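Data availability (excerpt). All sequences and predicted token strings are deposited with the supplementary files. A representative entry, Class II fructose-bisphosphate aldolase, is shown inline so that the format can be inspected without opening the archive.
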Amino acid sequence: PLATTGDIVAPAYAEGGCAPAFNVIQAEHITAIVDAAQARRRPVILQLSHNAVRYHGALAPIGSAMLAAARLADVPVAVHLDHAESPELVHEAVDLGFSSVMYDASTMDYTGNVAATADVVKHCHEAGVWVEAELGEVGGKDGVHAPGARTDPQEAARFVAATGVDALAVAVGSSHAMLTRTAELDLELIGRLRSAVDVPLVLHGSSGVPDEGLSAAVRAGLTKVNIATQLNKSFTAEVRRHLGDQPALVDPRKYLGAARSAVAEETARLLDVLDGR
Ligand code: G3H
Ligand code: ZN
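Structure token line:
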């Protein structure tokens, strides 16, 4: 069934476990991620980034498909808007029935980020929608690994109190869209953030972190773990393998189906990694 994000994140936060969140690009990702969650009997968060909305040209078609898949699932599935850069898109997701949103004003200065995020929180909480925000920009959205960015624990505590967010994305050594899994997380900082901040912490750019690093990050205090690139690597490798030397292959189901299976397999594998406390 469709779950609230709080219902998935809160128990993980209380138990020192992980709430895994996987990014959807198109319909094959939705099926693959839900299949893996059902196979592993694990709740999962399906998330759609603002960039993916731009790719589709609108939120409703793909967003409605995510919600429909969540309702059909036999494990709890939440539907989350990721890296929303405009309050208008947040409002649209709330109206469509999304479980939660991440409002990303991390490129603004501290004061601007607080003001913009607090407005979004007010709107979302009136509708019962859970909100994640980011402090201390996690780099890499421009394709450059910027491992140096860090979130300051005291500033993070102030930010959470001033905005009322339900979860906080923190910069602890990862970057978005890394093709190698070589990022080293600052586990000591994760521990300090966990003590200073009284809401669940979120890891972005998780694909660049090796399996052992992900387990260690959860043990150190991170709760929601966002994974996108790792699934896209599996998807694209499989498409490439199928199309390489088969000029007579024209039915997209042949290669998209194989790619979907590869994403389901990698999602299941990551669910095991993130479950292994
Ligand atoms: O918000 C999504 C995540 O931060 C995904 O990052 O593509 O590096 O796994 P990733
Ligand atoms: Zn992210």
